[in-house]
Amino acid sequence: MQITINRNGENYGPYSLEQVREMLDSGQAQPTDMGHVEGESEWVPLSEISKNLPEAGEKPPVIGSQDSDTYTPTGEHEHEFRIECKPDFSYLTVQVPANQTLKVEASAMATMSTNMVMKTKMKGGLSRFLGGESLFINEFSAQGGSAEIGIAPGSPGDMDHVHLSGADEIFLQSSAYVASGMQVNVDSKWQGFKGFFSGEGLFLLRCTGHGDLWFNTYGAMIEIPVDGNYVVDTSHVVAFTGGLQYNVESVGGLKSLFLSGEGLVCRFAGQGKVWIQTRHPMAFANWTYPFRPESNN
Amino acid sequence: MQSTIEGGPAFAYINIDLDPGETVIGESDAMSSMAADLDMEAKFNGGFFAGLAKAFLGGESLFVNHFTNNTSSTRRVTLVQSTPGNTRAVELNGQQLCLQPGAYIASTPGVQLGVQWAGFKSWFAREGLFKLTVTGTGTVWYGAYGGLLEKEVHGEYIVDTSHLVAYEPQMKLNIQLAGGLFSSLFGGEGFVTRVEGKGKIVVQTRSMSGLADWINPRLW
Amino acid sequence: MQINITHRPGNSAAKVSLEAGESITAEGGAMIAMSGHMQVETTTHKKDQGSILGAIKRLVTGESLFLNHFTPSGGPGEVYFGTALSGDMMEYNLNGPGIMVQGGSYVASSPSVDMDIQWQGFGKALFSGESMFLIRLSGQGPVILNSFGAVYPIQVNGEYIVDTGHIVAFEETLNYEVSKAGKSWLSSILGGEGLVCKFHGQGTVWCQSHNAGSFGASLGPNLKPR
Questions:
Q1: Of A75, C40, C150, C184, which cross-links C9 as Cys (Cβ 3.0–4.6 Å)?
Q2: Is A36 contained in some domain?
Q3: Are residues A177 and A240 in the same domain?
Q4: pLDDT at B73 exceeding the cut of 90
Q5: Is A64 within 8 Å of B206 when comparing Cβ atoms?
Q6: Residue C7 confidence (pLDDT)
Q7: Helix axes B208-215, C212-219, angle to 10 degrees
Q8: Chain C residues touching A292 at Cβ < 8 A
């Protein structure tokens, strides 16, 4: 939406609705100034135009269950954002300031302002791509004003946010990556964890730098503070902090015990945090078999 | 008639208590459980040709079920959509609502279902060529895979086509490429819907095509 | 034994806390995580009883061939159970009448609960697409069941109809028959409901709101062909 402001016979702008609101809040514009919305025929006072912006937190009446589990950041964060529809179908909305860029997992964009411009980059390099592993990241830039983007991963489940501050290091399972700020370095060529995942086309990302990082889980998310020793089935590992020591081993004959049936576990030692997911994609893949169309040859 | 939506937002289901003489209409295979003495009758979705149009073009079944209470006390029927996710009820009082094909679950007899052409451009977007319109007086229940979020649009907004569930009829929809040609192909976004106007839209926070895209690389 | 079911109804997991010496029996492959000192015994049969026949019967119901018995040694311990498909979980305490459970809905139970497979007979299950076998659980103690969708109970006092794909479990005091959903066969097939289960008598039926088959059919066309 483009709004032109008229004051004392002079036209200013055009500005976006968010910008007009900011100007009203800061006193740069007065509610009595006249504004013209592109496409409308009349000039109306700015107070009328800004009235149409829904108040933060106000929700229109709805009959039916509320998707009410909304998370807004309380700790350190770079961008304004909220995560709604937790914990089953988590949805991330990020405000990107004017002329800034956000990195987002490919095909995860669900909604965006019209002044958001998208570019595609491929991460991981050709060898990874040929090996059946890949991570495509899109860059979304807010042009000419701030913009909003709504992000929905493909799998159902929960989502979390971490703020990296220079010295921090997070290791993330590649399919769990959702989005990050431009100063967060997402290293996909990290070879240090070969064999962590048993060939599902998954690999570990090493995230460092400064800014916001968002990731999702398949199923419910359980955050485990490690202080000593902990054992987790590798297919359930989503992310862990850099300070932990790890050791991947096969449990061989005991593999039938585990939900994933993989038999690969990771022993974490030291101090840090591990995020695990309660469900396992291969089980879902197996379940889909009878519903898949038959190929015709 | 009294109704409640339980189990949401992950597995929303609708409990409808019908008073004697009342009827509720549900899409094919929506019944989860019901009182044994309720009468259930399959009917063509509003007339033969209209029914055919809706089926092939609107993504709904040719038939709907009419659940009628011909007893002398209140009886319950429990209806549900085929996918997990959230469900909403909307009270219509003459106004119209546009739904993505497949979002319709049930309605009361005063609500009419119609199919409208959504435009040629929709064909590229993997979604149906048509949109379902509901109008009249009464209640309509709709839902989708994922959570449901309502958004006010002031001017224009872009929505990935598989995430748009419902919108008010005065909104104009147009299809455009998500980015440049390379981005649109490799960025996985492809075509998106540009919504123009002033009104409300409802967005689903997951999609069946997104779920399929996520699991397909893991299928052998 | 303490059972704590979290993340209902979307992605439920069950956390079972056991005292030293206490045991829980679970179907093979349900465990997500467990305390380091948990002893696990994998068998094809109920703890302390022998019979491979029971295991074969279990396969037919859609459950795993194996049963795992978890017992913490030297102190209390805990074990987390999950399921392959998303959904709800419920805990039920058996104390008197047994319950009949749909194949695939069994997760775990205390060793004091007896498990038996029951053939439902041709008339009951033909065309329903569901397993012709139900698991009968009886005795005393807690059982954990899972479902696709949210679990809701129906108190039957006379008659009630449940679509066959929506049954999780029911008290064995109820009788049931498989019949057509509508007034006529035409109505039943065209209306997409097909066959339904009509329960008679007094007792509880636990239903699941959603139907895995319908979900699979909706997703199917988008999937890679096999």
A1: C150
A2: yes
A3: yes
A4: yes
A5: no
A6: 84
A7: 80
A8: 220, 223-226
* Mean pLDDT across C80-105: 86
Q: What's the token pair of residue B62?
A: 């040719």
Q: Under CATH, to which class is C2-220 assigned?
A: alpha beta
Q: Residue B43's domain spans which residues? A: 2-218
User: Closest to B187 (Cβ–Cβ): which among A62, A64, A120?
Assistant: A120
Cβ C145 vs Cβ C176: under 8 Å: no
Is the pLDDT score of C205 beyond 50? yes
Q: Which of A256, A286, A295 sits opposite C28 (nearest CB)?
A: A256
State the pLDDT confidence band at B74, using cuts at 50, 70 and 90: very high
- Judge whether B61 is closer than 8 Å to chain C, CB to CB: yes
Q: Contacts of residue B85 in chain A, CB cutoff 8 Å? A: 89
Please say whether the beta carbons of A237 and A214 come within 8 A: no
Contact B25, B61 (CB under 8 A): no
pLDDT at A65: 41
Residue C129 has pLDDT above 60, yes or no: no
Q: What is the CATH number of the domain that holds A19?
A: 3.30.1490.40
| Same structural domain, A44 and A102 | no
CATH at A248: 3.60.160.10
The low-confidence residues of chain A, meaning pLDDT below 50, are 52-67, 126-128, 130-132, 260, 297
Chain C partners of B65 at a C-beta cutoff of 8 Å?
A: 182, 191-193
Do the Cβ atoms of A204 and A171 come closer than 8 Å?
A: yes
Per-residue pLDDT band for B4 (boundaries 50, 70, 90) equals very high
Is residue A58 a part of any domain in this protein? Answer: no
Same domain, A30 and A175: no
Say what the ipTM of the complex is.
0.84
Same domain? For A140 and A221 the reply is yes
Asked if A109 and B87 come within 8 Å (Cβ–Cβ), the reply is no
Report d(CA A268, CA B167) in Å as an integer: 49
- Measured distance CA(C65)–CA(C210) in Å, rounded: 26
How many Å separate Cα C166 from the centre of its chain?
A: 12
CB of A290 within 8 Å of a chain C CB? The answer is: yes
Choose the weakest-confidence range: A189-203, B159-173, C13-27: A189-203
Instruction: Tell me the mean pLDDT in the region C88-103.
Output: 90
Q: Please state the φ and ψ torsions of residue A261, each to the nearest 5 degrees.
A: 70, 5
* A297 contacts chain C (CB < 8 A): no
Which CATH number characterizes residue B208's domain? 3.60.160.10
Domain count, chain A: 2
Task: State whether A29 and A176 are in the same domain.
Answer: no
Asked if the bond preceding A73 is cis, omega within 30° of 0, the reply is: no
Whether C187 has a pLDDT exceeding 70, the answer reads no
For residue B37, which residues of chain C lie inside 8 Å, CB to CB? 159
Give the residue numbers spanning the domain of A229: 80-284
> What is the pLDDT of chain B when averaged over all its residues?
84
**Domain assignment of residue A295, yes or no:** no
Computed on alpha carbons and rounded to an integer, the radius of gyration of chain B in Å comes to 18
The distance of C218 to chain A (nearest Cα, Å) reads: 9
The domains of chain C are located at 2-220
Provide the pLDDT for residue A127. Answer: 47
The answer to whether residues A182 and A89 belong to one domain is: yes
Tell me, yes or no, if C226 comes closer than 8 A to chain A by beta carbon. yes
Q: State how many domains chain B has.
A: 1
Q: Do A24 and A149 reside in the same domain of the chain?
A: no
**What is the model's pLDDT at position A54?**
41
Nearest residue in C to A262, CA atom:
C29
Looking at residue B139, its pLDDT comes to 95
The backbone torsions φ and ψ at residue C122, rounded to the nearest 5 degrees and listed phi first, read: -60, -45
